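Researcher: We're teaching a course module on how sequence relates to structure. For the next exercise, students receive a sequence and then see the predicted structure as tokens, so they can try to spot secondary structure elements on their own. Here is the exercise chain.
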Amino acid sequence: MTDYIIKNFNIDRNVMEFCLKEEEKIKKEFIEIEKTAELNQYKVLKAMQKNKLSDIHFAATTGYGYNDLGRDTLENIYADVFHTEAALVRPQIISGTHALTVALFGNLRYGDEILSPVGKPYDTLEGVIGHSREVKGSLKEYGISYKQVDLLPDGKIDYDAIPMAINPKARLVAIQRSKGYCFRPSLTIDEIKTLIEFIKNIRSDIICMVDNCYGEFVDIIEPSDVGADLVVGSLIKNPGGGLAPVGGYIAGKNEFVDNAAYRLTSPGLGREVGPTLGVTSNLIQGLFLAPTVVCASLKGAVYASRIFDDLGYNVMPKFNEKRADIVQAIQMNNENELIKFCQGIQKGAPVDSYVVPEPWEMPGYDCPVIMAAGAFVQGSSIELSADAPIKKPYIVYMQGGLTWYHAKIGIITALNKMYESNLIKL
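Model: And here is the predicted structure for the students to work with:
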């Protein structure tokens, strides 16, 4: 096996031998990841059995999409998996940012205020909010204000500042579970639970919405199990299992999901319409595979963390720390290391492996960004990918991997790219 990899992927033997030694050091962490995946697999299976999933639910609808049995059954399955009153799961939602936009516009009105108690949101959501930069059609244009409580220097939540930030206009608290493009710990379920309870004790009527992107099935429970009124995510991340070609979900209390549905389609129609156009079977089967795909992604993240930690890089989280999402952040020493790592990830991809990614001015970001993603689905970050803003402190964010073996070889090729460029020594 080792000789096959060295020969067919042009891996230096020193790199290969180093990576094999690193793999031996993380067997304990792999066992714990597999335990979580097993329980989540049973949870998804039970939800499908409860809703009497049948092949009739895989049929396509067109046009208005009235009486789409597959769509309605899929949404009931999601509601059962997330233990919520309702769920909106649609191919018409094109991304996590779009799902969040639908949830926000559906549940906020003129004069309302959003509070982020976990600091700056992900870059693309800043455009939706419209308060850090002017963007046409933003919430700010509709008279919805925004306030944030910055995290403490150690990345922890500033509980002392939150009560002062909650004023009578506050309608919704937006909690981003994953770190985004911030070198901070992602929020664990326990931390989300504590934060929601703290906020509800101040104002019980505030909607607590969790951006669950990258976090689904990482733990045995979800934010909706610990008090979140809404959980929102993308189907081309964790819950799509690599098979969903598009889509997003909004799960939570019936009232708030309905409000989002009226924004996604139109007032008076809501969840009653929306054709599935033949993708329902992919969305359902993707959800079924999601726990094991997330398991593979987590193994890859732990592997990368162990390798680069042992090489002296600053990594977050550490290989043996409790994980809140599938994202592995690695602080590189300079722009060149960051670029070579991403190019190495691309080189190990099944799609577009011959392409050499370069930084570019990507819409929605405030600086050039490099993105490596040789994916079957464009932009799918449950497939092995790595991306980074080209600015100090030179953090690369790696995530995904449909199988552990692909995550493994992708990380090896990334390390090899840095090694052959004389950027690291083993």
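Model: If you want an answer key for the exercise: DSSP finds twelve helices and twelve strands in the chain. Residues 280-310 form the longest helix (31 residues).
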